[in-house]
């Protein structure tokens, strides 16, 4: 992967409208998740303390913005590593009942909270596991997603023996510094979340898809 291999795209306004509709269709469960996340956050640190409900809601909306990427649409198994309080895995599991999700974090109490939340929500398609992603064993092809948890090169190296086809990183636009090494094996596509949306929350935010050739 070289910085010169990156192809840049804009996320169209329609994607945001699509996600807003998805939120509307799933608002009861997404609100229950938000309530439970705030409840757990008072007890164990899952997202920053004193973060307003509206900001967490924006993180949920952010999580859902991968819905229209082919790498997401074509995957039936999704592993969210460094999930913390369940972002992005939990909103994705709520809105994609046909897909299977494994939520992973190295911190046992966070995984316990995520398991409780999934139980409260009655989610049948989400499980949670507490170990370092380096220790994972997965035997079928999957998509890995991760939000604000790993540097790109680090996670690619840590999981080089796993059968992922794509990794979607939720990143800042300055992610290119995290990419180096041999280029032949991977392609890199970056999606700017701000250029078309003009929403201040998404300023300098990107979705970065690393694909195995
Ligand atoms: C900044 S938090 C992000 C949480 C969540 N993705 C979000 O956007 O709110 C990073 C998370 O990565 C987890 N983490 C760090 N190293 C890890 C590893 N090797 N394997 C699994 N999880 C890890 C941490 O415990 C932490 O919960």
Automatic annotation (TrEMBL):
GO MF annotation, one: rRNA (guanine-N7-)-methyltransferase activity
The entry marks the following residues as binding S-adenosyl-L-methionine, namely 82, 87, 133-134, 147
**Compartments it resides in:** Cytoplasm
The UniProt entry lists the main location of this chain as: cytoplasm
- EC number(s) given by UniProt: 2.1.1.-
Q: Please give the InterPro entries that the UniProt record associates with this protein.
A: rRNA_ssu_MeTfrase_G, SAM-dependent_MTases_sf
Its biological purpose: Specifically methylates the N7 position of a guanine in 16S rRNA.
Name of the protein: Ribosomal RNA small subunit methyltransferase G
**Native species of this protein?**
Halalkalibaculum roseum
Organism ancestry: Bacteria, Pseudomonadati, Balneolota, Balneolia, Balneolales
């Amino acid at each position: 992967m070289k910085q010169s291999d990156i192809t840049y795209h804009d996320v169209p306004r329609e994607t945001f409208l699509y996600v807003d509709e998805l939120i509307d269709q799933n608002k009861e469960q997404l609100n229950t998740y938000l309530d439970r996340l705030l409840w757990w956050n008072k007890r164990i640190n899952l997202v920053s303390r004193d973060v307003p409900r509206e900001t967490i809601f924006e993180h949920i909306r952010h999580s859902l913005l991968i819905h229209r990427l082919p790498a997401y649409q074509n995957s039936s198994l999704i592993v969210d590593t460094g999930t913390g309080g369940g972002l992005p895995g939990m909103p994705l599991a709520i809105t994609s009942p046909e897909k299977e999700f494994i939520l992973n974090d190295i911190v046992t109490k966070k995984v316990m909270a995520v398991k409780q939340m999934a139980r409260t929500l009655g989610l049948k398609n989400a499980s949670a596991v507490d170990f370092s992603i380096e220790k994972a064993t997965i035997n079928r092809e999957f998509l890995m997603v991760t939000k604000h948890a790993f540097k790109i090169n680090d996670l690619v190296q840590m999981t080089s023996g796993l059968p992922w086809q794509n990794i979607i990183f939720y990143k800042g636009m300055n992610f290119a510094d995290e990419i180096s090494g041999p280029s032949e094996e991977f392609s890199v596509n970056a999606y700017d979340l701000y250029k078309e949306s003009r929403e201040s929350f998404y300023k300098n935010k990107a979705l970065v898809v690393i694909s195995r050739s």
